[in-house]
Each structure stands twice: as structure tokens, then as C-alpha cells.
Amino acid sequence: MLQLATSFGVLLAFVSFAAAQSAVWGQCGGIGWTGATTCVSGSVCTYQNDYYSQCLPSTASATSVGTSTTSGTTSTVATTSTSSAPASTANIGLNVAAKAAGKLYLGSATDNPELTDTAYVAILSDSTEFGQITPGNSMKWDATEPSQGTFSFAGGDTVVNLAKANGQLVRGHNCVWHNQLPSWVSSGNFNATALASIVETHCSTIVSHWKGQMYSWDVINEPFNDDGTWRTDVFYNTLNTTYVSIALKAARAADPAAKLYINDYNIEGSGAKATAMLNLVKQLQADGVPIDGVGFQGHFIVGALPSTIQANLEAFTALGIEVAITELDIRMTLPATDALLAQQKKDYQTVISACKAVTGCIGVTIWDYTDKYSWVPSTFSGQGAACPWDANLLRKPAYDGIVAGFQS
Ligand code: 9MR
Fold it and tell me: Does the global pTM surpass 0.70?
């Protein structure tokens, strides 16, 4: 019996030694990690942030890892999740999963103030997780042309240079939008001729500046009201719908290689607003105006996804254009419970599966990957936890939902 127990102990020791090396893409270190700290042959344990080191293929590690290489310092961050739900268990990067499913990228929005956070940047820069970046604010009109004819590209340049260093695509966001519009445009009382020239100059100048460096541009952002009528902003009120073609033509002339998109929210499922967008695309095509894609923002609520996402995406790709999910996040009423996080995981999987099933759905962008920098809590009081990483930069079950969506 003693002999048996001893042998069993030896066996256990052997088993735990055999399991003491993490697989490729597996975790191999980080604060609180008690598992294996070495990697199987052909992969290297690579620091991602204080909470997470990962086994990356030896050949990929030199280029795919972020700039931060020091560990041991713990940054203090706000915690919005009170759940003890297990973190994600998937051992594959989101962008790796997206590409394996035939997509061009899985990406994240980012914003310039966040780029001083080295732990955040390390994950953002990991091209196994993110193959694409969208600047959340620094290419908008108020940032790029705060006064007429005075252009500022510094913030956008920073994001583009980071993406280049990481080997990531960039979605330009955006040329024409009613929001974050300087008052010299919105309250300038310009006549149609003057405003048309202002729109053309703005789009032409910013798209030219980043010529050859953009995968795509959201040339027009949020042109419709939720009932499918046109948003009565300064552009529509002055130029009727012609501002759309003015901007698209200016963008095409400025960078013929960039895919030109119109981007909106609440068009993810069928309905009046999606129909209005479909009709706009048909009209632009009939008029010979360049249009390459429609962006479906995807700002969803846990447990309340539209049921027609895939069919709706197909209605757009049937027109011969591509589609992308451009600003995905799925918010909940706080505090985050295990049940809400489990439903959120399902919802992420549902959205990703819909994109995966539609050949012309080329990629998905999360509207920042972490709850630490999500726009949601400051906009919707009492809501948040919308992203696949929590405020401590730990992966949530939603991460596994995304992987499952790509692998379904
Ligand atoms: O993420 C952006 C946030 O930092 C800004 O405060 C906000 C202001 O308008 O815009 C956010 O991004 C929006 C995007 O540009 C267009 N779709 C909705 C996004 C969330 O509001």
C-alpha cells in the first residue's frame, strides 16, 4: 500500500511535470498565475503585461510583441467587474482566430491618451490579438481641422505609426460627421457652394495625408436617424444628400487604394434604418459614386442583439460591397454578474459567427478592447463592462465567445 502510494506520488509528480510546459498561445506567467512558466519547444514565453505572459511561436515573438519588456511593476487601475467568473481559457489570439476563419482582421479602437499606458499598449500591439487599429478620436474633424484651413495630423500620425510598427491595418475614422464638429463648420452659416468646398477640402486633405497607409476610411459617419430619415445636421440642411457624394469622390481622388465606407449604428439588424442605408448604397452605385463598404458599428446591449444580423449583412454584400463590424461592444447594467458575463460571451459569439458566415464581412473591430478605456460608462450611466478585457486588462469570458464565433 505504501509502495502503491509512493508510486502514485511519483506518477503524479511526473504528470504535473509533463503538464508544466504551456502550449503555444498558452499563458506562461503573470501576477496571480500559478501554472506552467515554460513553453513547449518552438515557442517562447513572452511578457505581454504584468498579468499575462504568453507562449508565442519563436519566429513570431520578435515582431508580434509590444514594446514593453519590463515586468514587476503593478499599475493601479479601477475595477468595474465584481464578478468572480472564470477568465477566458482560449489559447489563441483573436486576430489569429479571425484570420483562420478567412477574415482580414480582428481589430481594436484606441485613443491617444491611452498610449502612455504601457501594459495597455503591450496588448494592443500584439498582432496575434489585433490585426487592425482605429483611432477613436484623433482623425475626427475637431482634431484634424479645428479652424478653417489649419490642419493637425499629429494625433492620427501617432496611431498610424504605432500600427505600422506592429504590422497592423488602420481604419480611418472619419471625414464627415455631425458630432465632434468644430463650431466654425456647424455654425458658420455657409451657403451650399461654400460648404461643399469645405467638405471637399477637408476630406481631400486628411485622406491625402495618410494616402497609401489606410485600409479604409469611414468617409461618412452616422447619416441617418433611427427611423431611416436623414439626420438634419449642417451638411444635410445645407447640401441635402449631395454632401455624401462630394465627400466620397474627394476621398477616392485623394487615395484611390483606400476602401471607402459609410458607417452607422442600429443598422446591424433589418429595419427602417438598414433599409435607408441599403437604398443609399444603391443610389450611389446608380449614380457612379465610389462606395466600397458599409460599417456596422455594433454597440449592443447584453441579451438584446437583433436576430437578423447575418441576413442583413448578406443584403448589403449582395450589392457587391464589403461590410465590417466597426465598433463592437456589448454593454450591461453594472455590476457585472457571472450570468451577465456568460450571456455577453454568447452575444459576442453570435455577432462574430454572423460575420464569419458572410464572405463579404471582412473583419471586426472592437470599440477598444478593455473596459478600462471604454466610452460606455461615461455615456450610459450605470452601464459598462462592454469589452472583452476587463479594467485590469484581464481577458473575460467574452474573449472566448469571440474565439468560438470564429471557430464555429
Ligand atoms: O470613443 C469615442 C469617445 O471617446 C468620444 O468621446 C465620443 C464622442 O463623440 O466618440 C466615441 O466614438 C464614437 C464613434 O466615433 C462613432 N460611433 C459611436 C462611438 C461611441 O460614441
Answer: yes
